[in-house]
Design goal:
It is found in: Cytoplasm. GO terms for molecular function: carbohydrate derivative binding; glutamine-fructose-6-phosphate transaminase (isomerizing) activity. This is Glutamine--fructose-6-phosphate aminotransferase [isomerizing]. It is an enzyme of class 2 (transferase). This protein has twelve helices and ten strands. The two termini are 32 Å apart. The strands form two sheets. The protein has a five-stranded parallel sheet with strand order 2-1-3-4-5, sandwiched between helices. It has a five-stranded parallel sheet with strand order 7-6-8-9-10, sandwiched between helices. The model has no long low-confidence stretch (mean pLDDT 96). The radius of gyration is 20 Å and the shape is globular. By secondary structure, it is an alpha/beta fold. The structure holds 5-amino-5-deoxy-1-O-phosphono-D-mannitol. The site of 5-amino-5-deoxy-1-O-phosphono-D-mannitol has 15 residues, from helix 4.
Protein backbone atom coordinates (compact mmCIF):
# COMPACT_ATOMS: atom_id res chain seq x y z
CA UNK A 1 0.00 0.00 0.00
CA UNK A 2 2.97 2.29 0.46
CA UNK A 3 4.05 1.35 -3.06
CA UNK A 4 7.67 0.76 -2.00
CA UNK A 5 8.00 3.99 0.00
CA UNK A 6 9.03 3.80 3.66
CA UNK A 7 6.20 6.05 4.79
CA UNK A 8 2.87 7.32 3.51
CA UNK A 9 4.19 10.83 3.94
CA UNK A 10 7.04 10.24 1.48
CA UNK A 11 4.71 8.49 -0.96
CA UNK A 12 2.34 11.44 -0.76
CA UNK A 13 5.18 13.94 -1.29
CA UNK A 14 6.05 12.06 -4.48
CA UNK A 15 2.39 11.95 -5.55
CA UNK A 16 2.22 15.74 -5.73
CA UNK A 17 2.77 16.15 -9.48
CA UNK A 18 -0.11 13.74 -10.10
CA UNK A 19 -2.32 15.39 -7.46
CA UNK A 20 -1.83 18.79 -9.11
CA UNK A 21 -2.38 17.41 -12.61
CA UNK A 22 -5.59 15.68 -11.49
CA UNK A 23 -6.80 18.85 -9.78
CA UNK A 24 -6.37 20.86 -12.99
CA UNK A 25 -7.52 18.19 -15.40
CA UNK A 26 -10.18 19.44 -17.84
CA UNK A 27 -10.34 22.85 -16.20
CA UNK A 28 -7.88 24.99 -18.17
CA UNK A 29 -7.61 25.36 -21.91
CA UNK A 30 -3.86 25.65 -22.55
CA UNK A 31 -4.47 27.44 -25.88
CA UNK A 32 -6.93 30.11 -24.74
CA UNK A 33 -6.15 30.14 -21.00
CA UNK A 34 -9.85 29.82 -20.34
CA UNK A 35 -10.77 28.28 -16.97
CA UNK A 36 -14.00 26.47 -16.11
CA UNK A 37 -15.05 25.31 -12.63
CA UNK A 38 -18.62 23.98 -13.01
CA UNK A 39 -19.05 22.87 -9.36
CA UNK A 40 -18.36 26.43 -8.22
CA UNK A 41 -21.87 27.42 -9.35
CA UNK A 42 -20.82 31.04 -9.81
CA UNK A 43 -20.02 33.10 -12.86
CA UNK A 44 -19.86 36.54 -14.47
CA UNK A 45 -22.42 38.76 -12.80
CA UNK A 46 -22.21 36.86 -9.48
CA UNK A 47 -18.77 38.35 -8.93
CA UNK A 48 -19.98 41.91 -9.51
CA UNK A 49 -21.95 41.52 -6.28
CA UNK A 50 -18.88 40.54 -4.25
CA UNK A 51 -16.70 43.24 -2.76
CA UNK A 52 -14.80 41.22 -0.17
CA UNK A 53 -13.64 37.66 0.36
CA UNK A 54 -13.04 35.85 3.66
CA UNK A 55 -10.75 32.82 3.57
CA UNK A 56 -11.29 30.56 6.58
CA UNK A 57 -9.25 27.47 7.48
CA UNK A 58 -7.07 25.70 10.06
CA UNK A 59 -3.45 24.49 10.10
CA UNK A 60 -1.90 23.78 6.74
CA UNK A 61 -5.09 24.78 4.93
CA UNK A 62 -4.79 28.21 6.59
CA UNK A 63 -1.32 28.54 5.04
CA UNK A 64 -2.87 27.88 1.62
CA UNK A 65 -5.31 30.70 2.39
CA UNK A 66 -2.44 33.08 3.16
CA UNK A 67 -0.88 32.39 -0.26
CA UNK A 68 -4.25 32.80 -1.99
CA UNK A 69 -4.71 36.27 -0.50
CA UNK A 70 -1.68 37.52 -2.46
CA UNK A 71 -2.93 35.94 -5.69
CA UNK A 72 -6.57 37.02 -5.47
CA UNK A 73 -5.77 40.61 -4.52
CA UNK A 74 -3.16 40.89 -7.27
CA UNK A 75 -5.17 39.44 -10.15
CA UNK A 76 -8.88 39.55 -9.22
CA UNK A 77 -8.67 42.89 -7.44
CA UNK A 78 -10.92 41.87 -4.53
CA UNK A 79 -9.85 42.60 -0.92
CA UNK A 80 -9.23 39.34 0.97
CA UNK A 81 -9.24 38.68 4.71
CA UNK A 82 -7.68 35.49 6.00
CA UNK A 83 -8.83 33.98 9.26
CA UNK A 84 -8.04 31.00 11.43
CA UNK A 85 -11.41 29.27 11.75
CA UNK A 86 -11.32 29.04 15.56
CA UNK A 87 -10.92 32.84 15.66
CA UNK A 88 -13.37 33.61 12.88
CA UNK A 89 -16.23 31.74 14.51
CA UNK A 90 -16.06 33.68 17.76
CA UNK A 91 -15.36 37.20 16.60
CA UNK A 92 -17.72 40.03 15.70
CA UNK A 93 -17.97 39.47 11.95
CA UNK A 94 -18.84 42.17 9.45
CA UNK A 95 -20.43 39.94 6.86
CA UNK A 96 -23.33 40.44 4.48
CA UNK A 97 -24.45 39.19 1.08
CA UNK A 98 -21.64 41.13 -0.62
CA UNK A 99 -19.01 39.02 1.16
CA UNK A 100 -17.93 35.65 -0.16
CA UNK A 101 -16.66 33.16 2.43
CA UNK A 102 -14.31 30.45 1.24
CA UNK A 103 -13.50 27.52 3.50
CA UNK A 104 -10.35 25.57 2.72
CA UNK A 105 -10.29 22.06 4.11
CA UNK A 106 -8.69 18.81 3.02
CA UNK A 107 -11.24 16.71 4.93
CA UNK A 108 -14.29 18.94 4.70
CA UNK A 109 -15.05 17.93 8.31
CA UNK A 110 -12.89 20.18 10.54
CA UNK A 111 -15.20 21.38 13.33
CA UNK A 112 -14.08 25.01 13.53
CA UNK A 113 -14.07 25.56 9.77
CA UNK A 114 -17.51 23.99 9.44
CA UNK A 115 -18.86 26.19 12.23
CA UNK A 116 -17.33 29.20 10.46
CA UNK A 117 -19.17 28.61 7.19
CA UNK A 118 -22.43 27.95 9.01
CA UNK A 119 -22.17 31.38 10.66
CA UNK A 120 -21.19 33.13 7.43
CA UNK A 121 -24.08 31.53 5.56
CA UNK A 122 -26.57 32.65 8.21
CA UNK A 123 -25.26 36.19 7.77
CA UNK A 124 -26.07 36.08 4.05
CA UNK A 125 -22.61 35.28 2.64
CA UNK A 126 -22.11 33.07 -0.40
CA UNK A 127 -20.10 30.07 0.78
CA UNK A 128 -17.56 28.12 -1.25
CA UNK A 129 -15.43 25.19 -0.06
CA UNK A 130 -12.08 24.10 -1.47
CA UNK A 131 -12.08 20.45 -0.51
CA UNK A 132 -10.46 17.08 -1.18
CA UNK A 133 -13.31 14.82 -0.05
CA UNK A 134 -16.32 14.46 -2.32
CA UNK A 135 -19.60 14.67 -0.43
CA UNK A 136 -18.04 15.82 2.86
CA UNK A 137 -20.13 17.95 5.25
CA UNK A 138 -18.63 21.27 4.14
CA UNK A 139 -19.24 20.58 0.46
CA UNK A 140 -22.85 19.63 1.23
CA UNK A 141 -23.44 22.88 3.10
CA UNK A 142 -21.75 25.21 0.58
CA UNK A 143 -23.21 27.06 -2.39
CA UNK A 144 -20.28 25.99 -4.49
CA UNK A 145 -17.15 23.83 -4.33
CA UNK A 146 -13.74 23.61 -5.90
CA UNK A 147 -12.52 20.04 -5.53
CA UNK A 148 -8.88 19.19 -5.19
CA UNK A 149 -8.17 15.75 -6.61
CA UNK A 150 -5.19 14.80 -4.47
CA UNK A 151 -6.58 11.33 -3.68
CA UNK A 152 -6.74 9.98 -0.10
CA UNK A 153 -4.09 11.47 2.20
CA UNK A 154 -3.10 8.99 4.91
CA UNK A 155 -0.12 10.73 6.56
CA UNK A 156 -1.25 13.03 9.36
CA UNK A 157 1.07 15.74 8.05
CA UNK A 158 -0.63 17.30 5.06
CA UNK A 159 1.55 17.36 1.93
CA UNK A 160 -0.15 16.64 -1.40
CA UNK A 161 -3.45 18.06 -0.16
CA UNK A 162 -1.67 21.39 0.44
CA UNK A 163 -0.06 21.75 -2.98
CA UNK A 164 -3.33 20.62 -4.59
CA UNK A 165 -5.11 23.35 -2.59
CA UNK A 166 -2.61 25.88 -3.90
CA UNK A 167 -3.23 24.70 -7.46
CA UNK A 168 -7.02 24.92 -6.93
CA UNK A 169 -6.74 28.39 -5.40
CA UNK A 170 -4.62 29.68 -8.28
CA UNK A 171 -7.13 28.16 -10.70
CA UNK A 172 -9.91 29.94 -8.79
CA UNK A 173 -7.94 33.20 -8.95
CA UNK A 174 -7.57 32.99 -12.74
CA UNK A 175 -11.25 32.10 -13.07
CA UNK A 176 -12.46 35.06 -11.00
CA UNK A 177 -10.03 37.43 -12.76
CA UNK A 178 -11.35 36.27 -16.14
CA UNK A 179 -14.98 36.61 -15.08
CA UNK A 180 -14.34 40.10 -13.71
CA UNK A 181 -12.06 40.98 -16.64
CA UNK A 182 -9.32 42.21 -14.32
CA UNK A 183 -6.62 40.44 -16.38
CA UNK A 184 -5.97 40.50 -20.11
CA UNK A 185 -6.46 37.48 -22.33
CA UNK A 186 -2.68 37.17 -22.68
CA UNK A 187 -2.20 37.23 -18.91
CA UNK A 188 -4.79 34.45 -18.59
CA UNK A 189 -2.83 32.31 -21.06
CA UNK A 190 0.45 33.05 -19.25
CA UNK A 191 -0.94 32.17 -15.79
CA UNK A 192 -2.78 29.09 -17.04
CA UNK A 193 0.34 27.73 -18.72
CA UNK A 194 2.48 28.42 -15.66
CA UNK A 195 0.03 26.46 -13.51
CA UNK A 196 -0.26 23.54 -15.92
CA UNK A 197 3.54 23.39 -16.26
CA UNK A 198 4.45 23.16 -12.58
CA UNK A 199 3.67 19.43 -12.17
CA UNK A 200 6.31 18.23 -14.61
CA UNK A 201 8.94 20.53 -13.09
CA UNK A 202 8.27 19.11 -9.61
CA UNK A 203 8.24 15.56 -10.95
CA UNK A 204 11.67 16.05 -12.49
CA UNK A 205 13.25 17.81 -9.49
CA UNK A 206 11.89 15.77 -6.57
CA UNK A 207 14.59 13.05 -6.40
CA UNK A 208 17.43 15.58 -6.67
CA UNK A 209 15.95 17.80 -3.95
CA UNK A 210 15.47 14.83 -1.62
CA UNK A 211 18.98 13.61 -2.25
CA UNK A 212 20.56 17.00 -1.51
CA UNK A 213 18.45 17.52 1.60
CA UNK A 214 19.18 14.08 3.01
CA UNK A 215 22.90 14.94 2.87
CA UNK A 216 22.45 18.41 4.31
CA UNK A 217 20.42 17.44 7.39
CA UNK A 218 23.30 15.53 9.03
CA UNK A 219 24.49 18.76 10.61
CA UNK A 220 20.99 20.02 11.50
CA UNK A 221 18.86 17.07 12.65
CA UNK A 222 19.79 17.39 16.34
CA UNK A 223 18.88 21.09 16.58
CA UNK A 224 16.59 22.16 19.41
CA UNK A 225 15.00 25.05 17.55
CA UNK A 226 14.56 26.06 13.92
CA UNK A 227 13.44 29.23 12.19
CA UNK A 228 11.87 29.41 8.74
CA UNK A 229 11.73 32.80 7.05
CA UNK A 230 10.38 34.22 3.80
CA UNK A 231 8.80 37.34 2.34
CA UNK A 232 5.78 37.85 0.10
CA UNK A 233 4.53 34.60 -1.38
CA UNK A 234 7.28 32.75 0.52
CA UNK A 235 6.11 33.90 3.96
CA UNK A 236 3.21 31.42 4.20
CA UNK A 237 5.56 28.68 2.98
CA UNK A 238 7.92 29.51 5.84
CA UNK A 239 4.97 29.04 8.22
CA UNK A 240 4.12 25.75 6.54
CA UNK A 241 7.73 24.51 6.79
CA UNK A 242 7.82 25.32 10.50
CA UNK A 243 4.48 23.59 11.14
CA UNK A 244 5.61 20.50 9.26
CA UNK A 245 8.89 20.29 11.20
CA UNK A 246 7.35 20.67 14.66
CA UNK A 247 4.50 18.32 13.86
CA UNK A 248 6.62 15.35 12.80
CA UNK A 249 10.07 15.88 14.39
CA UNK A 250 9.05 17.60 17.68
CA UNK A 251 11.71 20.26 17.13
CA UNK A 252 10.51 23.69 18.19
CA UNK A 253 10.17 25.68 14.97
CA UNK A 254 8.73 29.03 14.02
CA UNK A 255 7.98 30.71 10.74
CA UNK A 256 8.46 34.45 10.30
CA UNK A 257 8.08 37.09 7.65
CA UNK A 258 11.76 37.96 7.05
CA UNK A 259 11.09 41.65 7.61
CA UNK A 260 9.78 40.89 11.12
CA UNK A 261 13.06 39.41 12.36
CA UNK A 262 14.48 42.73 13.47
CA UNK A 263 11.37 43.37 15.56
CA UNK A 264 12.27 40.71 18.12
CA UNK A 265 13.19 37.23 16.90
CA UNK A 266 16.66 38.29 15.75
CA UNK A 267 17.57 38.22 19.46
CA UNK A 268 17.37 34.41 19.24
CA UNK A 269 19.99 34.10 16.56
CA UNK A 270 23.40 32.66 17.44
CA UNK A 271 25.68 29.95 16.07
CA UNK A 272 23.34 27.20 17.27
CA UNK A 273 20.18 28.51 15.63
CA UNK A 274 19.45 27.00 12.21
CA UNK A 275 17.45 29.22 9.88
CA UNK A 276 15.97 28.09 6.62
CA UNK A 277 15.42 31.11 4.38
CA UNK A 278 13.36 31.03 1.19
CA UNK A 279 14.95 33.49 -1.24
CA UNK A 280 13.54 33.03 -4.76
CA UNK A 281 14.46 35.74 -7.28
CA UNK A 282 11.04 37.39 -7.11
CA UNK A 283 9.96 41.01 -6.70
CA UNK A 284 11.08 41.11 -3.04
CA UNK A 285 14.41 39.33 -3.62
CA UNK A 286 16.68 42.26 -2.72
CA UNK A 287 14.81 42.82 0.53
CA UNK A 288 15.02 39.13 1.42
CA UNK A 289 18.76 39.09 0.79
CA UNK A 290 19.38 42.01 3.12
CA UNK A 291 17.38 40.21 5.84
CA UNK A 292 19.46 37.08 5.28
CA UNK A 293 22.68 39.07 5.49
CA UNK A 294 21.58 40.43 8.86
CA UNK A 295 21.13 36.83 10.04
CA UNK A 296 24.59 35.95 8.77
CA UNK A 297 26.11 38.86 10.66
CA UNK A 298 24.68 37.31 13.86
CA UNK A 299 26.29 33.95 12.99
CA UNK A 300 23.02 32.08 12.38
CA UNK A 301 23.37 28.67 10.66
CA UNK A 302 21.73 29.42 7.33
CA UNK A 303 20.17 27.09 4.82
CA UNK A 304 19.10 28.95 1.69
CA UNK A 305 16.53 27.80 -0.84
CA UNK A 306 16.96 29.96 -3.93
CA UNK A 307 16.88 30.18 -7.69
CA UNK A 308 19.30 28.13 -9.78
CA UNK A 309 22.08 30.29 -11.17
CA UNK A 310 21.94 32.72 -8.22
CA UNK A 311 25.64 32.53 -7.38
CA UNK A 312 25.41 35.41 -4.91
CA UNK A 313 23.94 32.95 -2.39
CA UNK A 314 27.29 31.14 -2.26
CA UNK A 315 28.84 34.15 -0.55
CA UNK A 316 26.37 33.71 2.30
CA UNK A 317 26.40 29.97 3.04
CA UNK A 318 27.49 26.57 1.69
CA UNK A 319 24.11 25.05 2.49
CA UNK A 320 22.02 25.95 -0.56
CA UNK A 321 19.31 24.02 -2.33
CA UNK A 322 18.61 25.44 -5.76
CA UNK A 323 15.13 25.47 -7.27
CA UNK A 324 14.44 25.80 -10.99
CA UNK A 325 13.41 29.25 -12.18
CA UNK A 326 9.62 28.87 -12.43
CA UNK A 327 6.92 31.54 -12.94
CA UNK A 328 6.99 33.67 -9.80
CA UNK A 329 3.43 32.81 -8.83
CA UNK A 330 4.40 29.14 -8.84
CA UNK A 331 7.19 29.64 -6.30
CA UNK A 332 4.95 28.81 -3.31
CA UNK A 333 4.20 25.40 -4.82
CA UNK A 334 7.83 24.79 -5.82
CA UNK A 335 9.36 25.92 -2.51
CA UNK A 336 6.96 23.78 -0.47
CA UNK A 337 8.78 20.70 -1.75
CA UNK A 338 12.14 21.32 0.01
CA UNK A 339 10.32 22.47 3.17
CA UNK A 340 8.39 19.18 3.30
CA UNK A 341 11.45 17.07 2.54
CA UNK A 342 13.62 18.82 5.11
CA UNK A 343 11.01 18.06 7.78
CA UNK A 344 10.63 14.48 6.58
CA UNK A 345 14.38 13.79 6.48
CA UNK A 346 15.02 15.35 9.89
CA UNK A 347 12.09 13.51 11.51
CA UNK A 348 13.06 10.11 10.12
CA UNK A 349 16.72 10.72 11.05
CA UNK A 350 15.50 11.33 14.62
CA UNK A 351 13.53 8.07 14.50
CA UNK A 352 10.09 9.69 14.68
CA UNK A 353 6.91 8.06 13.42
CA UNK A 354 6.16 10.58 10.69
CA UNK A 355 2.85 9.05 9.61
CA UNK A 356 1.38 9.01 13.13
CA UNK A 357 2.90 11.87 15.13
CA UNK A 358 2.05 11.93 18.84
CA UNK A 359 -1.06 13.80 20.02
CA UNK A 360 -2.38 14.43 16.49
CA UNK A 361 -5.36 13.16 14.54
CA UNK A 362 -5.81 13.36 10.78
CA UNK A 363 -9.11 15.16 11.07
CA UNK A 364 -10.04 17.46 13.95
CA UNK A 365 -13.81 17.02 14.14
CA UNK A 366 -14.19 18.31 17.70
CA UNK A 367 -13.55 21.82 18.93
O1 LIG B 1 -8.91 18.79 6.85
P1 LIG B 1 -8.45 20.21 7.07
O2 LIG B 1 -7.70 20.75 5.90
O3 LIG B 1 -9.57 21.12 7.48
O4 LIG B 1 -7.42 20.13 8.29
C1 LIG B 1 -6.85 21.27 8.83
C2 LIG B 1 -5.69 20.96 9.76
O5 LIG B 1 -6.12 20.16 10.84
C3 LIG B 1 -4.54 20.25 9.05
O6 LIG B 1 -4.09 20.95 7.94
C4 LIG B 1 -3.35 20.04 10.01
O7 LIG B 1 -2.78 21.27 10.35
C5 LIG B 1 -2.29 19.11 9.38
N1 LIG B 1 -1.95 18.03 10.29
C6 LIG B 1 -1.02 19.80 9.02
O8 LIG B 1 -0.07 18.95 8.47
Amino acid sequence: EKAGYKHFMLKEIYEQPQAITNTLSGRINAETGEVSIPELNLQGADFDKIDRIFLVACGTSWHAALVAKYWIEKYANIPVDVDIASEFRYRHLLINERVMTIAISQSGETADTLAGIRIAKKMGSKVVTICNVVGSTMTRESDGTVYTHAGPEIGVASTKAFTAQLAALFLFTIYVAQQKKTISKEKGVELGRALIGISSVIEKELPRIQDQISRLIESFYDARDFLFVGRGLSFPIALEGALKLKEISYIHAEGYASGELKHGPIALIDKDMPILALVPQDDVYQKSISNVEEIKARLGRLILIGTEGDTHLQNITDDIIYMPNVHEDMNPIMYTIPAQLLSYEIATRRGCDVDQPRNLAKSVTVE
